[in-house]
Amino acid sequence: MIKILVVDDEPQIARALRINLSAHGYEVTTAPDGAQALRAAAGVVPDLVVLDLGLPDMDGTEVITGLRGWTSVPILVLSGRAASAEKIAALDAGADDYVTKPFDIGELLARVRAATRRGNAAGDSPVTEIGGATVNLAVREVKRDGKEVRLTKTEWQLLEVLLRNPGKLVGQRELLHRVWGPNYDRETNYLRQYMAQLRRKLEADPARPVHLLTEPGMGYRFRP
């Protein structure tokens, strides 16, 4: 059964969507805000996310960005924002489609069918094990032995790039650009410093890393 996560803070709309989607054979989970949506996505691993942009705790584009940190699940935005700039911002953030409220349920169901045909997130998971630590990219949480391991914003950015490219060598320049920006081409000492910090926090033996690897003179690699 295809799983759909509906994110909307309006109870009437969330209920209507649950009833209509369930009637057409979909398994529906609902979330009323962005934080619960990200947690639900990590637990359910849906095949499609139907997302309102006007959420009480964060903007919907932030939810899109959070999801795109670990999954390619299709995201269908369902919003009352009709301005072109709003649509462009959502699509640039990683949304796949955009439907404006009020909407026709027949059209919405057609968009849902099209989105789920294009592919789903069945192979995606936000959770990775590194040296006995559990890393959850969906909610930016690391735990070891039930206790939280705190990472800085920069450590998260660096770790996300590596974890999203398992087994792939990510060059020094690419990492510097993606984490610090295009003006940091030569600051390879930043990479050495932050990789050392990540290993101390995540690797079982930081002196002999088995997951966060250095390719001397070239870049870094995450080995699952």
UniProtKB/TrEMBL annotation:
Record-listed 4-aspartylphosphate modification sites:
52
Establish whether keyword Ribosomal protein is in the entry.
Answer: no
As for subcellular location, the record says: Cytoplasm
Q: InterPro entries from the xrefs?
A: CheY-like_superfamily, OmpR/PhoB-type_DNA-bd, Sig_transdc_resp-reg_receiver, WalR-like, WH-like_DNA-bd_sf
GO MF annotation list = cis-regulatory region sequence-specific DNA binding; identical protein binding; phosphorelay response regulator activity
Cellular-component GO terms for this entry: cytosol; protein-DNA complex
The residue ranges marked as DNA-binding region are 125-224
A Pfam family: Response_reg
Q: Which UniProt keywords apply?
A: Cytoplasm, DNA-binding, Phosphoprotein, Transcription, Transcription regulation, Two-component regulatory system
Residue stretches making up the Response regulatory domain: 3-116
What's a GO biological-process term for it?
positive regulation of DNA-templated transcription
Q: Which residues form the OmpR/PhoB-type domain?
A: 125-224
Tell me, in a sentence or two, what this protein's role is. Answer: Member of the two-component regulatory system KdpD/KdpE involved in the regulation of the kdp operon. Upon phosphorylation by KdpD, functions as a transcription regulator by direct binding to promoter regions of target genes to positively regulate their expression.
Checking PANTHER family in the record gives: KDP OPERON TRANSCRIPTIONAL REGULATORY PROTEIN KDPE (PTHR48111:SF50), REGULATOR OF RPOS (PTHR48111)
What is the name listed in the Swiss-Prot or TrEMBL entry for this protein? Transcriptional regulatory protein KdpE
Q: What organism is this sequence from?
A: Glycomyces lechevalierae
